[in-house]
Design a protein that fits this description.
By secondary structure, the protein is α+β, with helices and mostly antiparallel strands. Helices cover 24% and strands 21% of the residues. The relative contact order is 0.16.
Length: 348
């Protein structure tokens, strides 16, 4: 009988952050990467687009105009999914029909006045300005008694629902803790109460010993492919120091976060030599005034591309009805990303 090999045989992997499982089918990856992998011809974006509602000086919805900003610019979303003045109310018709009103504040952060840039093409000192805005907005929104969670995220690429290529991200802050952070709050609390250390702190220590899934490391942060990754080239950035939220970072840690954010996304772009699409976001402790020593700051990256710049990973069939599934293993994905250059392909 053949002995089980995690690199060859179908298996399930456990995600301790969410208590979910993913089916891994590495034997199916023996045939991928066949067929032509070609560069996609992409449009060269201008530094300024007169039709872009995020460019400096341009008009937004409702006749509002952006200032002639340089660097970052923050404004309340003109099409906010959460509103501050939603009336309180509930629907409670037994266990099967429940709903309650939700309030919040949604903001947009322009990363740069240069319409043509993305994070991997920006300088670290300019990305650091983005990190500073994240910290300021987290602190400001977190002080609001109405706000109990602040979700900072970036959607990059049209296939991730990004309707405007101008470099920008969003912050949705809400009166309740959203589903995914709520899952992570529970698992991290249980782990901390049992071990007296953070779940991600111990996980990171173990990964740094194994080194199989480590991509980039600097003084204060590590980028890796998590053992339980679902998306083909899913990654995480984890702080080496177990801080609860971004506002607690030191000056040096903020610069390190900007540095590793750039280095990771350069590798993404270099993988298929295309502006690599992803959804990314910070997970951190709630802002309800309680103490959360179990929380460990981290950033998730969920990219959809699978075999080339034109082949996307879909969650369909079994994955929607039963369990997430992947063919390429986390270790194989990490090796491919790790082997890529720190220099953006456009600059080679």
């Amino acid at each position: 009988m053949t002995n089980f090999n995690i690199e060859d045989h179908p298996h399930r992997r456990f995600n301790p952050l969410t208590n979910d499982w993913v089916l891994v089918s590495p034997h199916c990856a023996k045939r991928p990467w066949q067929g032509q992998v070609e560069k996609i011809v992409t449009e060269e974006l201008p530094v300024y687009d007169p039709e872009c509602y995020l460019c400096a000086g341009n008009e937004r919805a409702g006749g509002k105009h952006n200032p002639q900003y340089k660097g970052t610019f923050v404004f309340t979303n003109d099409f906010s999914s959460l509103l501050t003045d939603s009336p309180e109310g509930i629907v409670d018709e037994g266990n099967l029909f429940q709903a309650k009103s939700e309030t919040g504040i949604c903001k947009v952060i322009c990363f740069s006045e240069d319409h043509s840039l993305t994070i991997p093409e920006m300088q670290v000192e300019d990305i650091r300005k983005v990190v500073d805005v994240w910290c300021e907005e987290f602190a400001e929104l977190g002080k609001n008694e109405m706000i109990n969670y602040v979700q900072i995220f970036e959607n990059k690429g049209a296939i991730m629902g990004c309707s405007n290529p101008h470099p920008h991200g969003q912050i949705w802050s809400s009166s309740s803790v959203p589903t995914e952070p709520e899952k992570e709050s529970k698992t991290q609390k249980e782990y901390f109460e049992k071990h007296g250390t953070t779940l991600l702190g111990d996980y990171l220590k173990a990964e740094l010993v194994k080194k199989d899934r480590i991509l980039v490391e600097n003084e204060h942060f590590v980028a890796l492919v998590p053992f339980w990754a679902v998306w083909p080239f899913e990654t995480m950035i984890i702080s080496k120091r177990p801080v609860q939220n971004i506002a607690l970072l030191t000056d040096a840690e903020k610069t390190s976060l900007a540095d590793i954010y750039q280095k990771l996304t350069i590798r993404y772009d270099n993988l298929f030599e295309v502006s690599f699409a992803y959804s990314a976001g910070l997970h951190q402790a709630p802002t309800d005034g309680k103490d959360y020593p179990e929380w460990h700051l981290h950033m998730h990256f969920y990219p959809p591309l699978l075999r080339s710049a034109s082949v996307k990973k879909f969650m369909v069939g079994y994955e929607m009805l039963a369990s997430p599934q992947r063919d390429i293993t986390a270790e194989q994905a990490a090796q491919r990303l790790r082997d890529l250059s720190d220099v953006h392909y456009k600059k080679v």
